[in-house]
Amino acid sequence: MTFRIAQISDTHLGREKPYFVANFLKVGDHCAKTRPDLVLNSGDISLDGAACAEDLAEAKRLHGALGLPVRFIPGNHDLGDAA
């Protein structure tokens, strides 16, 4: 059995500062065409989710619009630094 995963990272998505949304939409178009079994975002999903919950909400909305199963591993932009 073959299981295909599209692994992405450092999408840095945000509502107020949508600098990287166009890049994410290109990735989303590719995923829509290739239909992986899972999309895994492995960190820095949001631009500044640690300080701005709206960035996390926007990232979740954009990933949800892919129409594919998605899982996340948060990074420092999402949770902040532990130091």
Percent helix range: 25-40%
Give the total of domains: 1
Q: What spatial form do the alpha-carbon principal axes imply? A: globular
The CATH homologous superfamily is named GpdQ, catalytic alpha/beta sandwich domain
Give me the CATH fold name: Purple Acid Phosphatase, chain A, domain 2
Rounded mean pLDDT score:
95
Largest sheet: 3 strands, parallel
Protein model, in words:
- By secondary structure, the protein is of the alpha/beta class.
- The chain has a single domain (5-79), classed as GpdQ, catalytic alpha/beta sandwich domain (Purple Acid Phosphatase, chain A, domain 2, 4-Layer Sandwich).
- The chain contains three helices and three strands.
- A three-stranded parallel β-sheet has the order 1-2-3, with no helix packed on it.
- The radius of gyration is 13 Å and the shape is globular.
- The N and C termini lie far apart (43 Å).
Descriptive tags:
single chain, 83 residues, alpha/beta, Purple Acid Phosphatase, chain A, domain 2, 36% helix, 3 helices
Summarize the helices and strands and which ones pair or pack.
Layout: E1 5-8, H1 21-34, E2 38-41, H2 53-64, E3 70-72, H3 76-79
Parallel strand pairs: 1-2, 2-3
